[in-house]
Each structure stands twice: as structure tokens, then as C-alpha cells.
């Protein structure tokens, strides 16, 4: 018996009821408009027929796949809403490289390739891979826009001390915390005392970028800074006005503005510490520029951790990175620490020469 539109006594909306190829269905159309309900009934009946003949793969929509990913996936979801609004009920079988490229350009027309990768290609790949795991589509093989290799900027211990000493009183404990825990700006700025245990010397970040909570041991320098506060309830870090930092808009999952909450005070500290340079600004007035940002505190912590421990797996776990490949860049920034292994290479006869000046290799004194 094909689907028919019926009414329930206490519902204003039309209901679809019937049997399609042995499958009993009773679903609401979500509308009281009979003409609209009839269009929905026809579409739904076709989906059920296609599914019964060709399998689920033929009918699953992006909206269904995204919802299932949210309910059962373990990745971040903050960039999904614009994608769900764009693709909506488009069947997964109709979404390929071309459609995703067009979506990236439409949703982020002025954005860099790095931003398009982060906000479009990465979440799309995650959803499609999740759907492929359910056998709703083929495993995606997306080509991403090319972007320049990111340079890891980090501070030496001497530079970090200069920055800490130059911080305003309200900013100092926050900067120390970020440098010695590797916390992202949002994890630190909106940290609550309920997630800090000074006795156990541990902090827990319940909501992280990759969707999984993580805990990090507290360095003695952090404990010393935190113990200076008499408060043990509410926000750990406060503004210069002694109030918690403004929270992100709960209706905007993509709000990543934590760094902007402290950017002005942070840049001022960098200027006081001499961690930057001046360039001509408007009316030739000098303008201070620095490549040290709040996120550099995380890079600094990761670089120091690798220098001290040489343990990429532990660094990945403590820092909350999804893959080991994302952590490898901190090993690449530390090549100078491998100098002993290079110096240990055998010299041999190939290195014999007269009047060798080790301190000045260009002064070798070769004879013709």
C-alpha cells in the first residue's frame, strides 16, 4: 500500500502512512499545508523505493550524514552549520570534489586557502569518511587547496621571561599558564576553577578543539602564579577590570575569538619586552609589529617539551593533537639539538688536510 496523507486528531500536520515494499511507514510531514505535504510524500516514497532497490547509499542526504556524525563522531563540530545549511538534503552521491570546491568559494569567498581547508575541506572529509564507514558513500579522496607551509614561531626561555615580566598584573598568570601548559587561548581564557586541582597539580580542559577532554600536569611556576589568587570559584583568569572575559556567542559554534580577548594587552607586553620591531605607519608614525601572538605560547610549550623529552607521543597526548603528523613540526624546529649526533659521524681519511682550522672551515689551506 503506497503512502497516504492522513491527519491525527491532536496534530495540525499531515502524516504519511503506508507500506512501501514491505516496510511500514508512519512519519510526519512537518507541515499543515496539504500541497506541501503531498510534495514531501511523493519525495519520501521515491526515497523508500530507491533505498529498497539500490540500498541506503542511494538516498542518504548530507543532513542525515552530518547529524549521524554529530551523534556518533568524535571530532569537532563548530564549522558544520554553514555546511549543513549549504548542502541540506542533497544526497551524498551528488557531493563530490566539484561541489565542495564551489561550496568553499561561496561560503568563504575572501578567505585564505588555510581557512577554507580548516572550515570546509576538513569537516567535509570527516563527515564523508564517517558516512563511508556506514557504507553510505565511497571513501572520499578530496584534493585540498594548496597553502604555504606554516612556520612554527616559538620563544626561547629568555624571551619568555621577558614577556612574562612585561605583562600587566592581570595578564601575567594567564601567559605563564599558557606557556607552561600548552593551552589554546580558549582553553585558558575561559578556564573555570572547577577544572583546576592545585593539590594534585593538574588542570583538565573539558572542551577542546578536537572534541576530547584532556588533562595536563601543572608546572611549579604555574602553581605559584595560581596560588597568588584568593579565589577558587568561577573564572580562573580575569580582565584588568576584575571581571571574567566575555564568553563566545553560544549561537556561533565557529566563534574562535579567545585570542582577540587578550590581543591588545598581549601586544603591549610584547612591546615592553622588545619582542618585535617598528615599521612606518600612517603619517609616518612608527607602528609596533610582532610575530609573537597568544598562540605562540602553545608553540613554545610544545617546542620546549620536545627539547626536554624527545617524546612525540607524549607531546601529542598532552597537547591534544589528533595525529602524530601534526606534532612532527616541533621536532623539525629542533634540529640544532641533534648536533651531537652529526658531530659523532666518523671523520676518516676523507677529512685529512693540511693546516685545518676547525673554527674557520673556510680556511682549509688546500695545496694545488
TrEMBL record:
Any Pfam family: Phage_integrase
CDD domains: INT_Rci_Hp1_C
GO biological process: DNA integration; DNA recombination
GO molecular function terms attached to this record: DNA binding
Spans through the membrane: none
SUPFAM superfamilies found in the cross-reference section: DNA breaking-rejoining enzymes (SSF56349)
Tyr recombinase domain ranges (all copies): 150-344
Alphabetized UniProt keyword annotations: DNA integration, DNA recombination
Protein name from the UniProt record: Site-specific integrase
Species for this entry: Shinella sumterensis
Amino acid at each position: 500500500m503506497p503512502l497516504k496523507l492522513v491527519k491525527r486528531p491532536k496534530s495540525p500536520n499531515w502524516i504519511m502512512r503506508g507500506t512501501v515494499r514491505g516496510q511500514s511507514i508512519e512519519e510526519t510531514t512537518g507541515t499543515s499545508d496539504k500541497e506541501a505535504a503531498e510534495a514531501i510524500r511523493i519525495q519520501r516514497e521515491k526515497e523508500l523505493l530507491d533505498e529498497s532497490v539500490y540500498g541506503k547509499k542511494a538516498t542518504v542526504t548530507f543532513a542525515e550524514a552530518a547529524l549521524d556524525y554529530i551523534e556518533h563522531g568524535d571530532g569537532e563540530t563548530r564549522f558544520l552549520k554553514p555546511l549543513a545549511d549549504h548542502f541540506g538534503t542533497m544526497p551524498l552521491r551528488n557531493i563530490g570534489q566539484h561541489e565542495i570546491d564551489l561550496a568553499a568559494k561561496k561560503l568563504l569567498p575572501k578567505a585564505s586557502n588555510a581557512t577554507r581547508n580548516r572550515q570546509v575541506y576538513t569537516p567535509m572529509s570527516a563527515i564523508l569518511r564517517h558516512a563511508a564507514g556506514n557504507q553510505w558513500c565511497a571513501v572520499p579522496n578530496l584534493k585540498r587547496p594548496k597553502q604555504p607551509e606554516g612556520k612554527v614561531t616559538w620563544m626561547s626561555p629568555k624571551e619568555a621571561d621577558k614577556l612574562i615580566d612585561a605583562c600587566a598584573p592581570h595578564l601575567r598568570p594567564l601567559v605563564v599558564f599558557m606557556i607552561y601548559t600548552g593551552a589554546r587561548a580558549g582553553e585558558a581564557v575561559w578556564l573555570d576553577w572547577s577544572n583546576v586541582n592545585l593539590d594534585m597539580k593538574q588542570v583538565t580542559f573539558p572542551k577542546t578543539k578536537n572534541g576530547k577532554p584532556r588533562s595536563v600536569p601543572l608546572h611549579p611556576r604555574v602553581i605559584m602564579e595560581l596560588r597568588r589568587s584568593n579565589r577558587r570559584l568561577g573564572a580562573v583568569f580575569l580582565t584588568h577590570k576584575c571581571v571574567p572575559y566575555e564568553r563566545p556567542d553560544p549561537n556561533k559554534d565557529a566563534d574562535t575569538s579567545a585570542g582577540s580577548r587578550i590581543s591588545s594587552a598581549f601586544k603591549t607586553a610584547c612591546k615592553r619586552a622588545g619582542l618585535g620591531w617598528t615599521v612606518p605607519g600612517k603619517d609616518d608614525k612608527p607602528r609596533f609589529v610582532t610575530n609573537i601572538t597568544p598562540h605562540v605560547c602553545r608553540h613554545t610549550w610544545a617546542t620546549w617539551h620536545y627539547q626536554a623529552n624527545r617524546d612525540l607521543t607524549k607531546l601529542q597526548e598532552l597537547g591534544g593533537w589528533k595525529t602524530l603528523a601534526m606534532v612532527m613540526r616541533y621536532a623539525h624546529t629542533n634540529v640544532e639539538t641533534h648536533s651531537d649526533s652529526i658531530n659523532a659521524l666518523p671523520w676518516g681519511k676523507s677529512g685529512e688536510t693540511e693546516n685545518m682550522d676547525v673554527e674557520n672551515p673556510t680556511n682549509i689551506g688546500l695545496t694545488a
